[in-house]
Specification:
The protein has 12 helices and 10 strands. The mean pLDDT is about 90. By secondary structure, it is α/β, with parallel strands linked by helices. An 8-stranded parallel barrel has the order 1-2-3-6-7-8-9-10, surrounded by 6 helices. About 40% of the residues lie in helices and about 15% in strands.
Length: about 290
């Protein structure tokens, strides 16, 4: 085991230098992957911008309908043309989403306790690789609890999914879960995101924090920033802008889109930041102009 004494804390993340092994492929850290992996990653990350707007509506797997997603069959048709990727459970897709959509699919494959349980950190792999193939998933998402009681089991879950996905050319996304006793600091996120990437995750989903540019620079695969709790539109757009400016390859917003008074327009405003380099101010003006009256 590595000696943990005398670890150097101050590091040079070379923020002025781009990732060195990108090759001619637009997804960070994926230049050496095979054709099928690259094809699926291209379904997720726009080849022109290199970025993505994911729409998360997988909250029901532990929150049920109290997440604000009472009628998926009515919500998804409003938003599907305004985002790049749907992040969902298989149950929600099969019951409430028409299969003819031409968007990327991030499929939630881990599951655990409901919100009625104080400890959500003990999850299992809830579906096998064959069902992910049947559903034509572009990546498989696994929740990971670094620093929580369920750390070892969630690392095992992610490793199992990565191994299975590698056999069939399906990327895996490690989702950094922040437990109630963990601080949302750059130090923590640098640890958690790097661990998931080192295990073989092709995408890492995490949260925005101070010094986020160091987190993104130290992670050798694309980071997608979670939207988290509902924020006022101005603050949500500022977070999206700061995330992309700091090196994220996209955002995965749920509540900040579907709980907005104007969900489709909010998704479009986020897309302007992610794909067209709008500032937060420009995106808010875009949103405001389209929601007048």
């Amino acid at each position: 085991m590595a000696d943990l004494d005398g670890i150097k804390v101050e590091k040079n993340y070379h923020l002025d230098k781009p990732f060195a092994t990108g090759g001619n492929f637009h997804v960070k850290g994926a230049a050496n992957l095979d054709w099928g992996m690259k094809k699926r990653l291209t379904n997720i990350f726009n080849p022109k911008s290199g970025n993505t707007v994911m729409f998360a509506f997988d909250h029901g797997y532990f929150m049920g309908s109290v997440s604000g997603l009472e009628r998926l069959d009515l919500l998804i048709p409003q938003l599907i043309d305004h985002v790049d990727v749907l992040m969902s459970t298989r149950g929600a897709l099969r019951s409430s989403v028409k299969p003819g959509f031409r968007k990327g699919l991030a499929l939630r494959v881990s599951s655990g306790s409901s919100m009625l349980n104080d400890d959500l950190s003990h999850e299992v792999v809830a579906m096998d690789i064959e069902d992910a193939i049947r559903m034509d998933a572009d990546c498989m998402a696994v929740q990971c609890f670094i620093g929580a009681d369920g750390q070892l089991s969630s690392i095992e879950n992610l490793s199992r999914v990565i191994n299975a996905g590698n056999r069939y050319g399906i990327p895996s996304m490690g989702v950094v879960a922040v437990g109630k006793n963990m601080e949302r600091t750059a130090q923590y996120f640098k640890l958690a995101t790097r661990i998931l990437a080192e295990l073989g995750a092709h995408i890492v989903k995490t949260y925005y924090c101070d010094d986020f540019e160091e987190v993104a620079a130290a992670c050798p695969v694309p980071i997608v920033v979670a939207g988290g709790k509902k924020l006022p539109e101005k603050e949500a757009l500022e977070m999206a802008y700061n995330s992309i400016k700091g090196g994220a390859a996209g955002v995965d917003m749920g509540r900040n889109i579907f709980q907005s008074y104007h969900p489709a327009e909010m998704a479009d405003a986020v897309g302007k930041i992610v794909h067209e380099k709008f500032s937060a101010k420009e995106a808010l003006e875009y949103y405001t102009e389209r929601t007048k009256g």
